[in-house]
Amino acid sequence: MRVAIVSTYRPRPCGIAVFSADLRAALLEGDSSSTVEIVSIVRDEPHAHPPEVVATIRQDVASDYAAAASELRRRSVDVVLVEHEYGIFGGDVGSYILKLTHELSMPMVVTLHTVLANPSPDRAEVLRTLCERAALVMVFTETARRMVIEQGLAESEQVRVIPHGAPDELTQAAWSDRVGDDLSFRPLRSSSVSTWGSTAEYPPPVENMTTSSSSLQLGLPSLAGRSVLSTFGLISDSKGLEMVIDALPSITAAHPQVLYLIAGQTHPDVIHKEGESYRLGLQRLVHDLDLCDHVSFIDRFLTIDELAMLLARTDLYVTPYRSKDQIVSGALTFAVAAGCPVVSTPYFYAEDLLSSGAGVLVPFGDSSKLAAAVLDLLGSPAKLSAARAEARRVGADLTWASVGKATLEVLAEAAHRVQVPATLGRSR
Question: Is the pTM of this model over 0.85?
Answer without folding.
Answer: no
